[in-house]
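Usage example:
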Amino acid sequence: MNLQLGTFSYLMLGFRQAITPINLVWLTAGGLLGTIIGMLPGLGPATGIAVLIPITYGMNPATALITMAAIYYGAMFGGSRSSIMLNIPGCASSIVTCFDGYPMTQKGEAGKALATSAIASFVGGMISVVMMIFLTMPVANAALKFGPAEMFSVMLFALTATVALSQGSIVKGFASLAIGFMLSTIGIDAQTGLQRFTLGITELQDGVDFLVVMIGLYAVAEVFRNYSAIDRKYEISTKSIGKVFMTREDLKKCLMPMLRSSPLGFVVGVLPGMGGSIATMMAYAMEKQISRHPEEFGKGAIEGVAAPEAANNAASSGAMVPLLTMGIPGSGTTAVMLGALMMLGVRPGPLLFQQHPEVAWGVIASMIVGNVILIIINLPLVVPLVRLLNIPQRILLPIIMGLAFMGTYPINYSTFDFFLLSLFGLVGYAMSRLDMPIPPLVLALILGSNAEQSMRRALTISNGNPMTFLQKPISLVFIILTVLSLVYSFTREAKAKRKRSEGVAA
Amino acid sequence: MTKNLAAGLISLVLGVVYLFMTLRLPDVSIGDPLGPKLFPVLVGMGALISGALLVVGDIRAAKGGGRQRADEETAVERSARKALYGKIGLTILAGMVYGFILDTVGYLISTFVFMMILMCLVNTIRRMAENTIISLGFSVVTYVLFATIFQVSLPRGILAF
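Running the assembly step on the lines above writes:
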């Protein structure tokens, strides 16, 4: 009872913060920018936030966090636009929406599909925020009691799971993780003052600036990748969209899929390394399985749009939980958000809830307001917004590159950063050519020094006995989870390999 | 060279170099003596092991004949790849020039120059009017936004106002 009363009054505190005029303006702007970013193919939420980091420089922490969160879930609203209209996903979380969204367009039901995706996004967003409200306090309170040993084990689990649970080669993921850790150790060691791995470069004494690395890996590398398709053009006729609305019957059909997919998406979003794309696939597969007419899936079933769209929005709220309560991002996008916040001097985590509840709860409350704003933006304005898909790549790419460079400069007012930015643009491009995942590197870079300090502090407390990580119960649980996620991922990969070689033999 | 082999070699070499540098770090007398080296040793080992696994896996796949042969690059693909690398190289060069002139000539002019190079590179020289409008618009709009809303001061350089 007491706990719920506390949560309620904190939520009210959050609302007071969320509805200040300045925050409302940025909430709307962030949501709109996010929708556009999500919509444009080749520009995902991580890239979008990396490019838009400069807008947060003059902001107070609450406004910055509210704006970035709005960009993130705004992108989930927007991502489905190009899936539905062009059969090209706007970001990874809207791949699944192509399966039925585009067939609906071919049947002349584009307007209905767009309305469904907006409404499902709204429902997914709202349900997940409610779940978030009840989950954050207990998690933050628990995390408050974590000592260095527990903190290290949680980070170890989050990082391992990011590699293990994501798709693609696991060994390459660990290589990427190791490279991120290497970068995080560059600079002066906080505990001993020892200079490590600076190669004698003065600019590196304070370490590699993770914001510059992230803008390089996400924005610059993204533009490099898209250079190969400069002449790509999308022709959209907005006339064929038709009326953007759902009938009562459609709503009835979609209600249960939305109610099932939202909690699923939320839970998947909370877990590190899973995120929107896996949430949408699971939601889609689940709906297809329990549907009475599974044969319609893939041919324009409206549930096939509603379920993944509710799931990816719910996943984006879920991903905010570990970020806010423990300061541990579980994906590239939340890592970029963490980087931008640290630049403003804010470290999310349990202390944020204790010392600055207005910031932590302001964001949560703003997500309720933001979802309402986004559905208002997305239903009537969908036609003019979709027209933005006509912007040619050859104009868009230089602008993104320009934003990346000009946004980097004010971080340190040092043009040395342009060199780092270009370097990591190349690194990111090379990594994607070699199919090496980028998020593990980014997460390791941003959590690396924290992980190292926690590990050393835990070892100092235990007089150098490494068993301390297994003797503390909470730490032990996370170590076991780490091992389990490793075992799971390696058996999964071995199974896939066996299947592939059997396929070759046959 | 396959992707796995390349990724493995990179990781392996980085791991070895990094471990070597770690072991050469001076010993510290204050604080915990093992401290500043312990984490890097673990990380270096991680890179080394991941790299080795990738390389060994690739060699074994090659022996078993299970490795997919990369298709031979056609002449068209090769020229496309060269054009792509050219664009990337020129973009980085433009970025360096930008950094070199930013502090002296100021934000407005240097940003305009940078955007102009990029626009000519990507949007071709034929659409000069479009290039000029976008480059000019970009530098002015971002400058004004930064000066007013975001309150970040950017170097004014020779345009002192």
